[in-house]
# Entry
Amino acid sequence: MAEASSPVDTEFESEFDHGIAVSRSDGSPASYDAELSAGWQIGGGINGGLLLALMGNALRSSLGDAHSDPWSITAYYVSASQPGPARLTTEVLRSGRTTSTCSCTLLQPDAEGEVERVRALATYGSLAALPDDVRTTAAPPQMPPPDECVSTADAPPSFLAQAGLLERLDLRLDPACVGWAVGEPSGRGRVQGWLRMADGREPDPLLLLLAVDALPPVTFDLGLFGWTPTLELTAHVRAVPAPGWLRVKASTRNVAGGMLEEDAEVWDSADRLVAQSRQLALVPRSL
Amino acid sequence: MAEASSPVDTEFESEFDHGIAVSRSDGSPASYDAELSAGWQIGGGINGGLLLALMGNALRSSLGDAHSDPWSITAYYVSASQPGPARLTTEVLRSGRTTSTCSCTLLQPDAEGEVERVRALATYGSLAALPDDVRTTAAPPQMPPPDECVSTADAPPSFLAQAGLLERLDLRLDPACVGWAVGEPSGRGRVQGWLRMADGREPDPLLLLLAVDALPPVTFDLGLFGWTPTLELTAHVRAVPAPGWLRVKASTRNVAGGMLEEDAEVWDSADRLVAQSRQLALVPRSL
# Structure
């Protein structure tokens, strides 16, 4: 299923790499500057997966080459991020032989100084150094090929105007999970589709942090529309993804008390389960 | 299914409440002292669920009554906790109308001063204030009644000697998931059973943090024995549990690269899914 692909062109800066770029602040070994672009907005703020990847990139920069991959990263979203400048601070809690545990804080300026947007914790290591045993009992999601799926590029212009994120993605949703777009949600609480970057940027561990939060909310498939703010999101990156299309499946089983969990799986073109995530989010107020 | 139960006797201090007790350190509004008891050991350290509940209790103490319940709490286990004194520091990142987001650090003294054991992030609010909508599509685990399950009190004395935790629990495992105890693991990667505290302490949101990590590792059901150190554990507490037995189901779908995810569900006696958790752990070296 993998498509032919050439190695990453180091001259080419993709939209994703631009979106997660950090530069070391003068005079501090654990402080980075970044710019949150409106091009990654969705609904009321910057996409939570892009913020996760941005923090993941700052942590990777602070940890160096030995522990360069996020194995697990958790974000608590404290307030809604807005387009504009941001500052990230990092802290290494412990650095061992095979892993480092670390923390990252994302701040934005406000009238009173700085306001915290996201706090993250993470464990980093080398995915390439892991043993190659695979005893996965989960199966990849079954869906029609990308050409027979529904491209989000075909969404109404009024919808796309609020969703800069979607312009950066080539997202093809399984037709069985998009009944909500024509007023017929399935009620199963599942959304799945094919995902790649519109500009051809191949997947790597940081891109998987975007992928776990790139689909429309599973609440759409339950007929619940509106913003679904994430309180907490944890992603486990389990392997370096092969080049080509990713398949992402998101589902929920427990919508209750005004909250829901949303589980996502990301499979690569070699049929490997490369990332798993769970988030706790608020049900849209329309409930 | 709920058993008759009387209100919590405030004179009676249960083993669990003793295990998670914290006292405010002199002179600091965000520092607590605690004692980690060998009675909560399992394998090479203090049970990760007990540590989560201990940190949850320190955070609750620091937040006050308005936001007294953990909705989501995440722990990154930095080094193995040992019996003896511990210190917890807390930080409130943001306190809003309905939720507070906060951080907790668990430290123990060592030869060089203090060493970090666990770092946690959490969102707290009032579970009682949540709307009462329930659209859960998940179903409770099916298993025989407690009297027809396998009590861990019947485990070999040599095993119980290393597992002080089990003396504090009344844990009845589904016979279909304990083939590993007689050399016949099912290979499905699932363990489930009934759980209550041996001394009759009724469940509440903090006890659910213990419950999500109280079962034997699901790796046993795959024939993989040995310690399964947790890197990261996130628990979502979704409702105040009814009194009586809890049912806990733990499963894994992706054992690969020397790691596995372990998902747990906790159901109360009123058939409500009261907590969900996921952890990332290391596969025992015997693999």
